[in-house]
Amino acid sequence: MGHLVALAGSIPVEATFPYRGNSTSKPLCSAGRAETKEQDFRRHKFPEPLPALREVAFFVMIVVRGFKMYRRVPNSQDEIDDIVHRHTHEHETASAISRQYNCARESIVKLLKKQGVYRPIGTRKYFFNEHYFAEIDTARKAYWLGLFYADGNVHNHTLDISLERKDRYILESLASDVEYDGDIVNYKRETHIMEQEKLSTSHMSRLCLCSKKLTEDLIDKGVLSNKMYRVQMPSASKLPKHLIRHFVRGLFDGDGYISIGKNRSTKAVVWGIVGQEKLLKSVRQEISKLDIRAPNFFQKGEDNCWDLRYATSITSRYRKENTRLDDLLTIREWLYEDACIYFERKRKKFDILAPALELSGLSIDEAAEIIGIGKSTLAQLSNREKMGISSYKEGPFLRFDKKEVERIAKIVSTTTSKKRPWHEPRTGENNSSARLTEKKVREIRKKYKSGDNIMQLASQYDVGTSSIWRVVSYETWKHI
Protein backbone atom coordinates (compact mmCIF):
# COMPACT_ATOMS: atom_id res chain seq x y z
CA MET A 1 0.00 0.00 0.00
CA GLY A 2 2.87 2.34 0.82
CA HIS A 3 4.31 1.76 -2.66
CA LEU A 4 0.97 2.63 -4.25
CA VAL A 5 0.68 5.82 -2.23
CA ALA A 6 4.22 6.76 -3.19
CA LEU A 7 3.45 5.95 -6.81
CA ALA A 8 0.25 8.07 -6.71
CA GLY A 9 2.10 10.94 -5.04
CA SER A 10 4.74 10.86 -7.77
CA ILE A 11 2.14 11.63 -10.47
CA PRO A 12 2.72 15.24 -11.54
CA VAL A 13 -0.19 17.72 -11.42
CA GLU A 14 0.21 18.27 -15.14
CA ALA A 15 -0.16 14.56 -15.91
CA THR A 16 -2.57 13.71 -18.73
CA PHE A 17 -4.59 10.58 -19.32
CA PRO A 18 -6.15 9.48 -22.60
CA TYR A 19 -9.90 9.34 -22.83
CA ARG A 20 -11.68 6.24 -24.01
CA GLY A 21 -12.10 6.28 -27.72
CA ASN A 22 -10.23 9.55 -28.01
CA SER A 23 -6.50 10.05 -28.62
CA THR A 24 -6.48 13.62 -27.35
CA SER A 25 -5.26 14.48 -23.86
CA LYS A 26 -6.45 17.03 -21.32
CA PRO A 27 -4.88 18.21 -18.04
CA LEU A 28 -5.78 16.50 -14.81
CA CYS A 29 -6.92 19.68 -13.00
CA SER A 30 -7.98 22.49 -15.27
CA ALA A 31 -7.73 25.93 -13.63
CA GLY A 32 -10.67 28.27 -14.05
CA ARG A 33 -13.51 25.70 -14.20
CA ALA A 34 -16.58 26.13 -12.00
CA GLU A 35 -16.85 22.48 -10.94
CA THR A 36 -15.34 21.32 -7.67
CA LYS A 37 -11.94 19.64 -7.45
CA GLU A 38 -13.61 16.30 -6.89
CA GLN A 39 -15.68 16.60 -10.06
CA ASP A 40 -12.63 17.82 -11.93
CA PHE A 41 -10.64 14.79 -10.81
CA ARG A 42 -13.38 12.25 -11.52
CA ARG A 43 -14.02 13.72 -14.95
CA HIS A 44 -10.79 12.16 -16.22
CA LYS A 45 -11.21 8.49 -17.12
CA PHE A 46 -8.27 6.17 -16.63
CA PRO A 47 -7.44 3.05 -18.67
CA GLU A 48 -9.06 -0.16 -17.41
CA PRO A 49 -5.72 -1.71 -16.29
CA LEU A 50 -5.26 1.02 -13.64
CA PRO A 51 -8.46 1.12 -11.53
CA ALA A 52 -6.59 0.58 -8.28
CA LEU A 53 -4.09 3.30 -9.07
CA ARG A 54 -6.93 5.71 -9.85
CA GLU A 55 -8.63 5.11 -6.49
CA VAL A 56 -5.35 5.42 -4.62
CA ALA A 57 -4.46 8.68 -6.37
CA PHE A 58 -7.91 10.08 -5.54
CA PHE A 59 -7.48 9.11 -1.87
CA VAL A 60 -4.05 10.78 -1.75
CA MET A 61 -5.45 13.99 -3.27
CA ILE A 62 -8.14 14.12 -0.59
CA VAL A 63 -5.57 13.67 2.16
CA VAL A 64 -3.20 16.28 0.75
CA ARG A 65 -5.89 18.90 0.18
CA GLY A 66 -7.32 18.51 3.65
CA PHE A 67 -10.82 17.15 2.91
CA LYS A 68 -12.04 20.68 2.07
CA MET A 69 -14.54 19.43 -0.48
CA TYR A 70 -16.33 17.45 2.21
CA ARG A 71 -16.40 20.14 4.88
CA ARG A 72 -19.72 21.55 6.05
CA VAL A 73 -21.00 24.70 4.29
CA PRO A 74 -22.44 27.31 6.73
CA ASN A 75 -26.20 27.38 6.27
CA SER A 76 -27.78 28.71 9.46
CA GLN A 77 -28.98 32.32 9.49
CA ASP A 78 -26.69 33.24 12.39
CA GLU A 79 -23.67 31.94 10.54
CA ILE A 80 -24.66 33.74 7.34
CA ASP A 81 -25.15 37.02 9.20
CA ASP A 82 -21.78 36.61 10.88
CA ILE A 83 -20.03 35.93 7.58
CA VAL A 84 -21.66 38.94 5.91
CA HIS A 85 -20.72 41.15 8.88
CA ARG A 86 -17.11 39.96 8.83
CA HIS A 87 -16.80 40.62 5.12
CA THR A 88 -18.61 43.98 4.84
CA HIS A 89 -17.73 45.67 8.16
CA GLU A 90 -14.52 44.00 9.35
CA HIS A 91 -13.25 43.64 5.75
CA GLU A 92 -12.12 40.04 6.14
CA THR A 93 -11.32 38.10 2.98
CA ALA A 94 -13.20 34.99 1.88
CA SER A 95 -10.07 32.94 2.56
CA ALA A 96 -9.79 34.15 6.15
CA ILE A 97 -13.49 33.45 6.77
CA SER A 98 -13.20 29.96 5.25
CA ARG A 99 -10.39 29.11 7.68
CA GLN A 100 -12.56 30.22 10.60
CA TYR A 101 -15.46 28.02 9.46
CA ASN A 102 -13.22 25.16 8.28
CA CYS A 103 -14.70 25.08 4.78
CA ALA A 104 -13.65 25.81 1.21
CA ARG A 105 -13.08 29.41 0.11
CA GLU A 106 -15.35 28.82 -2.88
CA SER A 107 -18.25 28.06 -0.55
CA ILE A 108 -17.82 31.37 1.26
CA VAL A 109 -17.56 33.27 -2.05
CA LYS A 110 -20.71 31.60 -3.34
CA LEU A 111 -22.57 32.46 -0.13
CA LEU A 112 -21.45 36.12 -0.22
CA LYS A 113 -22.43 36.47 -3.89
CA LYS A 114 -25.83 35.04 -3.10
CA GLN A 115 -26.25 37.72 -0.40
CA GLY A 116 -25.10 40.38 -2.90
CA VAL A 117 -22.22 41.68 -0.78
CA TYR A 118 -19.15 39.94 -2.16
CA ARG A 119 -16.22 42.09 -3.19
CA PRO A 120 -12.64 41.00 -3.87
CA ILE A 121 -10.81 42.88 -1.15
CA GLY A 122 -7.30 42.19 -2.37
CA THR A 123 -5.00 45.10 -1.51
CA ARG A 124 -7.75 47.71 -0.98
CA LYS A 125 -6.65 50.33 1.54
CA TYR A 126 -9.94 52.13 2.27
CA PHE A 127 -13.45 50.78 2.60
CA PHE A 128 -16.99 52.18 2.29
CA ASN A 129 -20.57 51.10 1.64
CA GLU A 130 -20.60 50.25 -2.06
CA HIS A 131 -24.36 49.65 -2.07
CA TYR A 132 -25.29 53.12 -0.81
CA PHE A 133 -26.60 54.31 -4.19
CA ALA A 134 -28.26 51.05 -5.21
CA GLU A 135 -31.59 52.80 -4.57
CA ILE A 136 -32.34 56.53 -4.28
CA ASP A 137 -34.86 56.55 -1.44
CA THR A 138 -33.81 59.43 0.85
CA ALA A 139 -33.38 63.20 0.50
CA ARG A 140 -29.63 62.98 1.09
CA LYS A 141 -29.15 60.37 -1.63
CA ALA A 142 -31.16 62.51 -4.06
CA TYR A 143 -29.00 65.54 -3.19
CA TRP A 144 -25.77 63.60 -3.78
CA LEU A 145 -27.09 62.36 -7.11
CA GLY A 146 -27.80 65.95 -8.21
CA LEU A 147 -24.33 67.06 -7.06
CA PHE A 148 -22.74 64.18 -9.01
CA TYR A 149 -24.67 65.26 -12.11
CA ALA A 150 -22.97 68.65 -11.79
CA ASP A 151 -19.49 67.99 -10.38
CA GLY A 152 -19.07 64.21 -10.31
CA ASN A 153 -16.91 62.26 -12.75
CA VAL A 154 -17.17 58.50 -13.25
CA HIS A 155 -14.28 56.73 -14.98
CA ASN A 156 -12.46 53.39 -14.62
CA HIS A 157 -14.79 52.23 -11.82
CA THR A 158 -13.96 55.39 -9.84
CA LEU A 159 -16.18 58.25 -8.66
CA ASP A 160 -14.12 61.45 -8.54
CA ILE A 161 -15.56 64.69 -7.14
CA SER A 162 -13.66 67.93 -6.43
CA LEU A 163 -14.97 71.06 -4.71
CA GLU A 164 -13.45 74.31 -3.51
CA ARG A 165 -11.69 73.94 -0.19
CA LYS A 166 -14.19 76.21 1.54
CA ASP A 167 -16.84 73.58 0.66
CA ARG A 168 -14.80 70.69 2.09
CA TYR A 169 -17.49 70.02 4.72
CA ILE A 170 -19.74 68.80 1.88
CA LEU A 171 -17.24 66.08 0.97
CA GLU A 172 -16.88 65.18 4.64
CA SER A 173 -20.66 64.70 4.85
CA LEU A 174 -20.57 62.48 1.76
CA ALA A 175 -17.74 60.40 3.25
CA SER A 176 -19.74 60.01 6.45
CA ASP A 177 -22.88 58.89 4.59
CA VAL A 178 -21.07 56.16 2.61
CA GLU A 179 -18.99 55.16 5.69
CA TYR A 180 -15.72 55.99 3.95
CA ASP A 181 -12.69 55.56 6.24
CA GLY A 182 -10.12 57.12 3.91
CA ASP A 183 -8.78 60.64 3.48
CA ILE A 184 -10.03 63.69 1.60
CA VAL A 185 -7.14 65.22 -0.31
CA ASN A 186 -6.41 68.95 -0.53
CA TYR A 187 -4.58 70.20 -3.61
CA LYS A 188 -4.00 73.25 -5.81
CA ARG A 189 -5.41 73.45 -9.31
CA GLU A 190 -3.91 75.85 -11.83
CA THR A 191 -6.03 77.12 -14.71
CA HIS A 192 -4.65 79.11 -17.62
CA ILE A 193 -6.73 82.21 -18.42
CA MET A 194 -6.32 82.92 -22.13
CA GLU A 195 -7.66 86.49 -22.11
CA GLN A 196 -5.39 87.66 -19.31
CA GLU A 197 -2.49 85.33 -20.17
CA LYS A 198 -1.92 84.20 -16.61
CA LEU A 199 -2.44 81.20 -14.35
CA SER A 200 -5.28 81.14 -11.83
CA THR A 201 -4.71 78.98 -8.73
CA SER A 202 -7.65 77.39 -6.94
CA HIS A 203 -7.51 75.59 -3.60
CA MET A 204 -9.52 72.38 -3.96
CA SER A 205 -10.55 69.29 -2.00
CA ARG A 206 -11.02 65.91 -3.65
CA LEU A 207 -12.74 62.63 -2.79
CA CYS A 208 -12.27 59.44 -4.83
CA LEU A 209 -14.37 56.30 -4.32
CA CYS A 210 -13.14 53.24 -6.23
CA SER A 211 -15.78 50.56 -6.69
CA LYS A 212 -17.25 48.77 -9.67
CA LYS A 213 -20.58 48.28 -7.89
CA LEU A 214 -20.86 51.95 -6.88
CA THR A 215 -20.05 53.31 -10.32
CA GLU A 216 -22.41 50.86 -12.04
CA ASP A 217 -25.26 52.05 -9.79
CA LEU A 218 -24.49 55.71 -10.55
CA ILE A 219 -24.15 55.13 -14.30
CA ASP A 220 -27.51 53.36 -14.22
CA LYS A 221 -29.00 56.54 -12.70
CA GLY A 222 -27.46 58.87 -15.27
CA VAL A 223 -24.07 59.93 -13.89
CA LEU A 224 -21.87 59.72 -16.99
CA SER A 225 -18.26 60.56 -17.77
CA ASN A 226 -19.17 62.34 -21.01
CA LYS A 227 -22.06 64.64 -20.04
CA MET A 228 -22.10 66.96 -23.03
CA TYR A 229 -25.17 65.62 -24.87
CA ARG A 230 -26.59 62.70 -22.88
CA VAL A 231 -27.56 64.08 -19.48
CA GLN A 232 -31.25 64.21 -18.65
CA MET A 233 -33.49 63.99 -15.59
CA PRO A 234 -33.57 60.49 -14.03
CA SER A 235 -36.76 58.57 -14.62
CA ALA A 236 -39.42 58.19 -11.93
CA SER A 237 -38.35 54.59 -11.30
CA LYS A 238 -34.84 55.76 -10.35
CA LEU A 239 -35.68 59.10 -8.69
CA PRO A 240 -39.08 59.36 -6.92
CA LYS A 241 -41.04 62.53 -7.64
CA HIS A 242 -41.06 63.69 -4.01
CA LEU A 243 -37.23 63.76 -4.06
CA ILE A 244 -36.83 65.82 -7.23
CA ARG A 245 -36.45 69.12 -5.34
CA HIS A 246 -33.52 67.66 -3.36
CA PHE A 247 -31.95 66.51 -6.63
CA VAL A 248 -32.35 70.04 -8.05
CA ARG A 249 -30.77 71.52 -4.91
CA GLY A 250 -27.70 69.34 -5.44
CA LEU A 251 -27.63 70.36 -9.09
CA PHE A 252 -27.89 74.03 -8.07
CA ASP A 253 -25.06 73.70 -5.53
CA GLY A 254 -22.83 72.17 -8.20
CA ASP A 255 -23.67 74.17 -11.34
CA GLY A 256 -25.92 76.97 -10.06
CA TYR A 257 -25.33 80.57 -9.05
CA ILE A 258 -27.02 83.40 -7.18
CA SER A 259 -25.78 86.98 -7.13
CA ILE A 260 -27.03 90.16 -5.50
CA GLY A 261 -25.95 93.43 -7.09
CA LYS A 262 -24.16 96.15 -5.12
CA ASN A 263 -26.12 99.03 -6.67
CA ARG A 264 -28.09 100.59 -3.79
CA SER A 265 -30.98 101.70 -5.95
CA THR A 266 -31.67 98.44 -7.79
CA LYS A 267 -30.14 95.54 -5.85
CA ALA A 268 -30.58 93.21 -8.83
CA VAL A 269 -30.82 89.51 -8.02
CA VAL A 270 -29.92 86.80 -10.53
CA TRP A 271 -30.48 83.09 -9.84
CA GLY A 272 -29.77 80.32 -12.30
CA ILE A 273 -28.35 76.91 -13.23
CA VAL A 274 -25.99 76.14 -16.11
CA GLY A 275 -26.14 72.74 -17.79
CA GLN A 276 -27.39 70.59 -20.65
CA GLU A 277 -30.58 71.35 -22.56
CA LYS A 278 -32.67 68.26 -21.75
CA LEU A 279 -31.84 68.34 -18.06
CA LEU A 280 -32.59 72.05 -17.61
CA LYS A 281 -35.85 71.76 -19.54
CA SER A 282 -37.00 69.16 -17.01
CA VAL A 283 -35.95 71.42 -14.12
CA ARG A 284 -37.86 74.32 -15.72
CA GLN A 285 -40.99 72.17 -15.92
CA GLU A 286 -40.70 71.29 -12.22
CA ILE A 287 -40.36 74.98 -11.27
CA SER A 288 -43.37 75.87 -13.44
CA LYS A 289 -45.48 73.54 -11.28
CA LEU A 290 -45.02 75.98 -8.36
CA ASP A 291 -47.58 78.39 -9.91
CA ILE A 292 -44.93 81.02 -10.63
CA ARG A 293 -43.51 82.44 -13.82
CA ALA A 294 -41.09 80.04 -15.48
CA PRO A 295 -37.43 81.11 -15.52
CA ASN A 296 -35.81 82.30 -18.74
CA PHE A 297 -34.07 79.61 -20.77
CA PHE A 298 -31.42 80.34 -23.38
CA GLN A 299 -28.27 78.88 -24.93
CA LYS A 300 -24.79 80.08 -24.01
CA GLY A 301 -22.30 79.85 -26.85
CA GLU A 302 -22.25 77.20 -29.55
CA ASP A 303 -21.82 74.12 -27.37
CA ASN A 304 -24.64 72.30 -25.63
CA CYS A 305 -24.47 74.72 -22.71
CA TRP A 306 -27.73 76.32 -21.58
CA ASP A 307 -28.66 78.77 -18.85
CA LEU A 308 -31.82 78.59 -16.73
CA ARG A 309 -32.06 82.10 -15.25
CA TYR A 310 -34.40 84.04 -13.00
CA ALA A 311 -33.67 87.80 -12.65
CA THR A 312 -35.43 90.28 -10.38
CA SER A 313 -34.65 92.92 -7.74
CA ILE A 314 -34.96 93.16 -3.99
CA THR A 315 -36.15 96.78 -4.21
CA SER A 316 -39.78 97.13 -5.21
CA ARG A 317 -39.08 100.26 -7.23
CA TYR A 318 -37.07 98.38 -9.83
CA ARG A 319 -38.84 95.03 -9.96
CA LYS A 320 -39.22 93.87 -13.54
CA GLU A 321 -42.67 93.25 -14.92
CA ASN A 322 -41.92 89.70 -16.08
CA THR A 323 -40.41 88.51 -12.79
CA ARG A 324 -41.10 89.04 -9.10
CA LEU A 325 -39.09 88.69 -5.93
CA ASP A 326 -41.94 86.69 -4.41
CA ASP A 327 -41.49 84.04 -7.11
CA LEU A 328 -37.78 83.73 -6.37
CA LEU A 329 -38.55 83.32 -2.68
CA THR A 330 -41.00 80.56 -3.62
CA ILE A 331 -38.12 78.75 -5.35
CA ARG A 332 -36.08 79.24 -2.17
CA GLU A 333 -38.74 77.59 -0.04
CA TRP A 334 -39.09 74.74 -2.54
CA LEU A 335 -35.35 74.04 -2.52
CA TYR A 336 -34.61 74.38 1.19
CA GLU A 337 -37.73 73.18 2.98
CA ASP A 338 -36.63 70.34 5.30
CA ALA A 339 -33.18 70.45 3.66
CA CYS A 340 -30.52 68.51 5.57
CA ILE A 341 -27.50 69.21 3.34
CA TYR A 342 -26.62 72.22 1.17
CA PHE A 343 -23.89 74.77 0.37
CA GLU A 344 -24.06 77.26 3.23
CA ARG A 345 -22.64 80.16 1.19
CA LYS A 346 -25.45 79.89 -1.38
CA ARG A 347 -28.12 79.47 1.28
CA LYS A 348 -26.92 82.67 3.02
CA LYS A 349 -27.49 84.70 -0.15
CA PHE A 350 -31.01 83.34 -0.36
CA ASP A 351 -31.56 84.27 3.29
CA ILE A 352 -30.78 87.91 2.46
CA LEU A 353 -33.91 87.95 0.32
CA ALA A 354 -36.20 86.48 2.99
CA PRO A 355 -37.01 89.73 4.89
CA ALA A 356 -38.49 91.25 1.71
CA LEU A 357 -41.90 89.75 2.50
CA GLU A 358 -41.85 90.78 6.17
CA LEU A 359 -41.21 94.55 5.90
CA SER A 360 -43.24 97.11 7.82
CA GLY A 361 -45.16 99.98 6.27
CA LEU A 362 -45.93 100.29 2.56
CA SER A 363 -43.73 99.77 -0.47
CA ILE A 364 -43.25 102.53 -3.02
CA ASP A 365 -45.64 100.76 -5.39
CA GLU A 366 -48.41 100.60 -2.78
CA ALA A 367 -47.81 104.18 -1.59
CA ALA A 368 -47.86 105.62 -5.12
CA GLU A 369 -51.10 103.81 -5.89
CA ILE A 370 -52.82 105.16 -2.75
CA ILE A 371 -51.56 108.73 -3.24
CA GLY A 372 -52.36 108.75 -6.94
CA ILE A 373 -48.98 109.81 -8.34
CA GLY A 374 -46.31 107.97 -10.28
CA LYS A 375 -43.69 105.80 -8.58
CA SER A 376 -40.80 107.79 -10.06
CA THR A 377 -42.33 111.07 -8.81
CA LEU A 378 -42.83 109.64 -5.33
CA ALA A 379 -39.26 108.32 -5.26
CA GLN A 380 -37.89 111.75 -6.17
CA LEU A 381 -40.03 113.58 -3.61
CA SER A 382 -39.15 111.17 -0.82
CA ASN A 383 -35.44 111.99 -1.23
CA ARG A 384 -35.92 115.75 -0.71
CA GLU A 385 -36.26 117.62 2.51
CA LYS A 386 -39.18 119.95 3.25
CA MET A 387 -41.28 118.38 0.50
CA GLY A 388 -43.93 117.00 2.86
CA ILE A 389 -43.43 113.28 2.03
CA SER A 390 -41.34 111.38 4.56
CA SER A 391 -40.00 107.85 4.13
CA TYR A 392 -37.57 105.51 5.85
CA LYS A 393 -35.28 102.62 4.97
CA GLU A 394 -35.35 99.02 6.12
CA GLY A 395 -32.11 97.64 4.81
CA PRO A 396 -32.14 98.40 1.09
CA PHE A 397 -35.93 98.86 1.01
CA LEU A 398 -37.65 102.27 0.82
CA ARG A 399 -40.77 102.21 2.99
CA PHE A 400 -43.63 104.66 3.77
CA ASP A 401 -45.70 104.91 6.91
CA LYS A 402 -49.34 104.14 6.24
CA LYS A 403 -50.67 107.22 8.13
CA GLU A 404 -48.24 109.47 6.27
CA VAL A 405 -49.39 108.07 2.94
CA GLU A 406 -53.04 108.61 3.85
CA ARG A 407 -52.26 112.23 4.83
CA ILE A 408 -50.54 112.92 1.50
CA ALA A 409 -53.36 111.20 -0.38
CA LYS A 410 -55.87 113.56 1.29
CA ILE A 411 -53.80 116.62 0.26
CA VAL A 412 -53.60 115.37 -3.33
CA SER A 413 -57.35 114.78 -3.50
CA THR A 414 -58.27 118.26 -2.13
CA THR A 415 -55.70 120.55 -3.79
CA THR A 416 -54.53 121.40 -7.25
CA SER A 417 -51.07 120.34 -8.36
CA LYS A 418 -49.55 123.84 -8.01
CA LYS A 419 -50.69 124.22 -4.39
CA ARG A 420 -49.27 120.93 -3.18
CA PRO A 421 -46.32 121.23 -0.76
CA TRP A 422 -43.84 119.56 -3.09
CA HIS A 423 -44.53 122.21 -5.75
CA GLU A 424 -43.19 125.10 -3.64
CA PRO A 425 -40.57 127.25 -5.46
CA ARG A 426 -37.16 125.62 -5.28
CA THR A 427 -35.25 128.67 -4.10
CA GLY A 428 -32.37 128.96 -1.69
CA GLU A 429 -31.63 125.84 0.28
CA ASN A 430 -34.75 124.12 -1.14
CA ASN A 431 -32.90 123.83 -4.42
CA SER A 432 -31.09 120.50 -4.44
CA SER A 433 -28.26 121.96 -6.57
CA ALA A 434 -27.51 124.86 -4.17
CA ARG A 435 -23.92 124.87 -2.88
CA LEU A 436 -24.39 127.78 -0.49
CA THR A 437 -26.55 128.21 2.57
CA GLU A 438 -28.33 131.28 3.94
CA LYS A 439 -25.62 131.67 6.59
CA LYS A 440 -22.82 131.61 4.01
CA VAL A 441 -24.64 134.10 1.77
CA ARG A 442 -24.88 136.63 4.65
CA GLU A 443 -21.16 136.15 5.40
CA ILE A 444 -20.20 136.67 1.74
CA ARG A 445 -22.15 139.92 1.47
CA LYS A 446 -20.73 141.19 4.77
CA LYS A 447 -17.14 140.42 3.77
CA TYR A 448 -17.61 141.96 0.33
CA LYS A 449 -18.75 145.20 1.95
CA SER A 450 -15.68 145.01 4.25
CA GLY A 451 -13.36 145.06 1.24
CA ASP A 452 -12.71 141.42 0.28
CA ASN A 453 -12.56 140.93 -3.46
CA ILE A 454 -14.56 138.41 -5.44
CA MET A 455 -11.56 136.17 -6.23
CA GLN A 456 -10.76 135.72 -2.54
CA LEU A 457 -14.39 134.96 -1.65
CA ALA A 458 -14.73 132.43 -4.51
CA SER A 459 -11.63 130.60 -3.32
CA GLN A 460 -12.72 130.68 0.32
CA TYR A 461 -16.23 129.26 -0.30
CA ASP A 462 -15.23 126.91 -3.15
CA VAL A 463 -17.59 128.38 -5.76
CA GLY A 464 -17.10 130.28 -8.99
CA THR A 465 -16.51 134.04 -9.22
CA SER A 466 -19.74 134.44 -11.19
CA SER A 467 -21.67 132.84 -8.31
CA ILE A 468 -20.11 135.30 -5.83
CA TRP A 469 -20.94 138.23 -8.11
CA ARG A 470 -24.62 137.18 -8.42
CA VAL A 471 -24.84 136.82 -4.64
CA VAL A 472 -23.36 140.28 -3.82
CA SER A 473 -25.39 141.94 -6.57
CA TYR A 474 -28.62 140.30 -5.33
CA GLU A 475 -29.31 138.51 -8.61
CA THR A 476 -29.62 135.30 -6.58
CA TRP A 477 -30.71 134.71 -3.00
CA LYS A 478 -33.01 137.75 -3.25
CA HIS A 479 -35.13 136.58 -0.34
CA ILE A 480 -32.29 137.17 2.12
Explain what this protein looks like in three dimensions:
It is a single chain. By secondary structure, the chain is of the alpha+beta class. Among the domains are: 2-69, no CATH class; 71-115; 364-424; 435-472, no CATH class. The protein has helices at residues 2-9, 37-43, 51-64, 77-88, 94-101, 105-115, 139-151, 168-177, 212-220, 244-255, 277-288, 325-336, 344-353, 364-371, 375-382, 402-414, 438-450, 454-461, 465-472; strands at residues 16-19, 22-27, 152-155, 158-164, 185-193, 198-210, 256-260, 268-275, 296-299, 306-313, 392-394, 397-399. The strands form four sheets. The protein has a four-stranded antiparallel sheet. Strands 7-8-10-9 form a four-stranded antiparallel sheet. Helix 4 crosses helix 6 (105-115), helix 7 packs parallel to helix 10 and helix 18 (454-461) packs across helix 19. The longest helix has 14 residues, at 51-64. Mean pLDDT is 76; it is low at 1-34 and 316-322.
